Amino acid sequence: MSLSLRIDDALRARLEKVAKDLDRPMSWIGVEALEQYLSYHEWFVASVEKAIATADAGGPFISHEDVVAESEVRIKARLA
Asked: For the chain, how many structural domains are there in total?
């Protein structure tokens, strides 16, 4: 099955560069990009639906203070 898309010149140039860098046809790059985007979107939607179901069921929840504290620990670890 084929699909036709209209893209601007800047996006086409980026697509051509990646295709050249990887020595692949532009259509292959386009299919890969769509696969990755759709996989991410499906994962994201499923994650949000799971979080909503958890919240609707009453939790468990993590306090804002705990999230901030954990973030600070992770930031300090990265800077170390």
From this structure: 1
